[in-house]
Every structure is written in C-alpha cells, then in structure tokens.
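Project standup — Tuesday

K.O.: blocked on the structure for the chain from last sprint. Re-posting the sequence here as requested.
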Amino acid sequence: MHLNQPAKLALEDGTVFTGESFGAEGEVDGEVVFNTSMTGYQEILSDPSYRGQIVTMTYPEIGNYGVNDEDLESRKPHLAGFIVRQASRRVSNFRATGRLHDFLRSHGIVGLAGIDTRALVRRIRTRGALKGVVSTRDLDDRRLVDKAKSSPGLVGRDLVREVLPDRMREWDSGLSPWAFLPGRSGSSTRSADEPRVAALDFGMKWNIARHLRDMGCRVTILPGNATAAEILDLRPDGIFLSNGPGDPEPIDYAIRAIRELLGKVPIFGICLGHQLLALACGAKTYKLKFGHRGANQPVLHLPTGKVEITSQNHGFAVERESLPDCLEVTHIHLNDETIAGVRHRALPAFGVQYHPEASAGPHDSRYLFHAFRELMTGSAQPAGA
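H.V.: unblocked you, prediction finished:
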C-alpha cells in the first residue's frame, strides 16, 4: 500500500489540511464529522446513516485488524469520505480477509491519512460540524474551500431516498456466535406463532434485523417509503422504524405513514426511527452542534435509574420544548441532557436515539428488543415502564 500521493481536506471556514491519499482517488464533498470509537471502523463505513458525511476517526491508528464480510452492516459503504490519523499498513487478525485500503478502493471511497485529526476534531467541537471537500485531484486551497462552501450540506435534504432498498424481502439471519457470552447461543428453534415484524428500512443496519430474528421474530423488511396500507397488508404484529441518514424533517412520507400506523400495532424506533416517531406525534427536531458519534455514549434510563453505555450516530435530536403531552421522555444523554428515548403515554410505541444492536455495553441495551417483543405478545409496557 502506497500512501505518498498528496491529498487535502478543505473546510468551509477556510481551514485546509494536507495529508496522504489512501483508498480510492477522487474528490468528494460532505459534512465533516468525527467518531470516537476505538474499533468498529468497518461497521461505521457500512452504516447507511453516514450518507453525505466525511467521517473522521479520533482513534489514531485505523485498519490494523483488516476487514471481513461478516462485520458489514449493509452491502457497501455509504459515507462520502474517510479520514484517519494513521492508516495501518499491516493487518493482524485471524478473522481478516482483506485490508482497509483495498476495501475503500474497491468501493470508491476516498480516504485521507496523515493529518492532525486532533486539531480537526477540536475545530469541529468549537465551530460545529462543517462542510468540507476531500480531494486527491484538485490541490488548490482556494478552489477547494470554495467547493466546500458551495456544497449542499445535510439540512433539508432527503438522504433516505439515496439508501432505500429497492424491494421488500424476508430476513432470516440471526446473530453471529461472536455476539454471545460463553455457553449461550442464539435462538435455534422457530415456531409458527412467532410475531411478525414489518421493519421499515430507512438505511437499516443489518445487525438490527439479526437481533429481531434472534428474539424469535419473523422479519419482513420494507423500503422506508412504503405506505401505511402496504405495511398493514402484511398483518404485522409490530412495526420497526430503522436508523437512517440526515435530517428527519424532510422525510414527510414516513411521518405520514407512522401517524396512520400509531395505535394499530406496537412500534419501536431506533435513531432516525425514533426521531420520525416523535415528529409523527407532533414534536420537532433540531440539528446538534457536532452530533453524537461513538461507542462510548452514556445514557440514563429514567424508569430504572440505570446508566447504559451506548453506540450512537446522529446529528439531529428531538427538541424537548416541542414534546407533545402524549410523549414521555424515557432516556437522556448524560453528556448534554438531550433526549435519548421517548414513549407514547397511551399507545404501544417507543423509540431510542441510540443503537442497542451495536452492543457497546455490550448487553446494556438488549432489553429494548425484549420489550418490543413483549409488547407484540401483549405481556409488557414499552421500554421498562
């Protein structure tokens, strides 16, 4: 792997970083954000929620354990670009089937290495998420800054349409054996009375579907632009609202469908799905200064007083002041006290702003999938009420 071709990152505020290219060559624009995870870069790369973003890893060495097909969260990477302090030249892991550099190149993802990522992250933390351009072709600072300023950004864009699946499908894969403690395995027996989940895919991570299947659910995945009538035609026992990219407010088709579905069957939303549920109930959302992205985010579960260590990836949040009376806050983010979970006071519907399927705790948030299944079978209230 050769990392000596120059490449640059230019931000809309005029800052320019010069480093080396890795992965594919080219030029991309997007919102520059950072993720604080020490591992999991392949899951980050293949998470559709990063559509339209250039992701910076704060951990200094990335790529040292390579890549493999088992850890993918979707068919391909969806982010715009990838920035690291040091791209590891050596792979050391028995599960690895390839190198990160080759993975990025094969999927056309432009990477930048060798810059001061600490300085970049401090700038984002101070100024907020910034629009930027990464280029291996045009290395003129002024032109790149102008391109960054004129790039579209995320607010008001419907990025979900860019990651929607093209058809409905059944999901039948459970969790990997790596997900379980010694002596415990996933569900192996199936029965005809398993609850059917209609999972609306706005950019869903595959591990969510694996968790639902492992909990003993039949999972049918539908494109996120399915109508309420199309969803109800499946006669589901529950509806899952997935994660996805960007600003939730332009996703009006999903908000309308959720509003029609409320009260008909239990609903569980994660990340963007949580935001869409809140919007359907009358709340508003707003853009965070630099978002929450990492596998070490502390969340307080208010009904129990327990703290969960969670994985998060979002740049928008539900506005507390706009919360309608029908919604109750169940979780708060302890770093900034933003809303991290809500439930409907009268109807079987709840959502969380983080990713329980990512197992950051590692098992702190697994109860949410159990709660959803129990709601579908009529034996519990949502989210530990």
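K.O.: great, moving the ticket to review. The longest helix spans residues 117-127. The two ends are 53 Å apart (CA to CA).
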